[in-house]
Design a protein that fits this description.
Largest sheet: 8 strands, mixed
Number of strands: 24
Radius of gyration: 43 Å
Distance between the termini: 73 Å
Structural class: alpha/beta
Mean pLDDT: 82
Amino acid sequence: MVKSKNTPNELFNEFLNEEALKPRQKVEVALEIIKPETVSYKLAVPTPTTEEEIKNQWRVIRNFFRSGENPKRNESTGLMPVLPAPYLKKDEITTDYPVFLSVESKFDHCPFSDLLENTFKKIFKEKEAGILLQNLPRIENFVRKYVVDAGNFCPFDVALGSAIKDISKIKIKGEDRANFLKDIEKFKDSLPQSGMLLGFSQQTPVHFLVHLLKYQTLEKRKKFISEIHVLKSGLNDLLSVEKSEGSKDHSSGWGIADSLIEFKKLDTLMPERASESMPEKRYERIVNCISTLDSAESLLQNYNGLIFIGKTLSENSNFNWNKLLEGIEVKVAPTNESCTSASNGFKNHIAGLVKLMTAVRIAELEIKNKYDEEIHRDFFKRFNWHYFTEEESSLCPPVVLIEETQNLLGKELQHFSTLIASNKPVKVLAINEPSPFKINFNDSEDELPSYQQELSSLTISHRGAFTLQSALHNPVHLLKGIESGLASSTPALFHILISPDSDNTSTQNFINISSAVEGRQFPLFTYSAGENKWGSRFDINANPQSYLDWPEYTFEITNENKGTDKLELPFTFVDFYAVNKSNSESLFLVPPSYWSDDLIPLSEYLKLSTDKLYAKVPFIWLVDNEDTLQKVAVPYSLVIEAKERLDFWNFIQELGGVNSFHVEQAVNRTRNEMQEQKEKEIKDIETKFEKQIEEVRTSAAGEAMDRLAGILLDLDSITSLPSVSKISKPSSSPEAEESKTSVITPAKVETTEKVVEISGEAWLETFKCTSCNECTDKYPRAFKYNGDKQAYMEDITTVTYAQLVKAAEACPAKCIHPGMPLNPNEPGLEELIVKAKPFN
């Protein structure tokens, strides 16, 4: 992981973001970690070229694409992939190293920078210890330098003490200095008092493994041994009772007491167990249990596990095995027999642990007096490690095999498969130390690069083994994966990518590993065999932009006379390949004068169908030392490699449930079903509304004809009156009966010549109702809801004309039409009719 001051946990895949590229704040320390400044890229400028030159150049380009022959090899010298280029130019970068390894349960393993930041936030409030806060980067850099100088592995308290001592020498005057020193002491006391700090090196995975073997279950094993002591005490008590019972001598003469006490009768009053001697078999069983339980300390507390190392790896001078594996029993496996040695070693190793767990279980039964000879004798006769509970398995120091990946995929392949298939909980740490990646461009068509063997996918195929594929650049993912695998009761593979270069301080090493992950050469994932659902067993989230084929980034570029543009740039397998300087020189630099539509990005080339590829040549973007973007053609040999790596990545994605064909089918099926249901609902609503609209149109047409007839015949009595038949549930009150037969004439309403004919019948447009409850709550007898919770008029004789007009005014949908008043004697009708006019 690459980090910046602004984003403490920034991944390498994000290191070209604007925030990441801001310069790191200067601090006065011996070790200055330099961050690259914001980069402004520009496109290469074409030069005038003739048509004939273009044709000739493209013949060379296409020949390079087919054969890999590059007559302009030296012209691509100094070109770098765009993404890591700013970092490849620097000597050092800031990462998640060093890592703090805890030996106390109250502290977690984490990057040292996170430990500093989290501890500070925990003990100081906002705006407190400001001077100390400003100097946290100094402490971090002091410690980082100390760890590097100490060989990338040292005690936490020693490194921190040295940093605190140096930081305390800062020249601060007066009361500020006293407060500063006080804050430092408070801060130091809140940090762990023990533990280790681990830096970036080839040996890091082994350090992680050994530390976890020693401390991961230390507290649990101590507690278990304490419980064993209690069991031993209980068994000894049983034997003590037996000895005391066996030492009784009732035949001895007591003189006068013999005539006063009848001992035989006294024996009958004692509990049966006290009056009977312990069976000889039980006595021997308890004695054997105690003897076996005495071995608990040597098997659990003073023993951290058994490690087998492959013969070739044991001779690797880059690993100081004696120092690395101090405190662990180590055996070197014969050549081509590492897996067999680990399997046989487990058989001998587990025998003593099986005997101990058997004794623990028998002791528990004996103390509770629940041991049944008929049942338990046969059970414990066949008892082995397969019967261990998860808790018992986690207490057992494991057997670990450390071997090179190439050996496991070579002559050891069959034995490795047998070991994993045996379900023996042997843990395998596979060190992937790749040689510089090269392509032989002179291969014939029949010898083009083939699919790579994948140790991790082979392990997954056995289904029952925990599998971790991780890389050295991401210590958090690596550490958590090893921790989970050691805690598993199943076989486990830790497939770790390290740098082939032993120069632990080299930025190139870190970038090489990170680029392998970015370019899908070595994707990160974990497979937990214990999960119930297949998809839940996989975790691929540690990969950059795990939902895409290739991670994609946006860059700003400067075009001549065109201002600033944005360039979408994927980081492909070939970009990873080009991180190596000698590899980038093997690619073909295409001058901008020869750029054409036939030169397309590699990521697009891989998506095109065969019939569209005949004239196309893929390229990737590289950048020179002057930050000028150049296009370099990619040979077909590398295209095949990129396809193979993409296929493996897609395989991992599908296992992790990302871009899964079956998931996409299920989503599409659900989407179609929802769309069909929605369309049906819309169609039903439209049909319903059309019916209601038609009813309204018919009613409105009838009312219009009534008004027209009244005008033509000049019959005032034909003025639209409320239809008695449309008023349901009429009131039986005399006032209501009178209102039914009342005819309201324009003379009685004192209308003027300008009066406009108003519909005399009150009505409600139900289909417009918004279910606001306004009318139904205030006038529940006049207004009701139908089955769709839309209002209709039930009995308007239960309200006055004033209330009806008020309901029309309050209706948000304006769907209540009060018509003309039913009661001509209601006060204020003239004003009410004017108010009702807008709603009719």
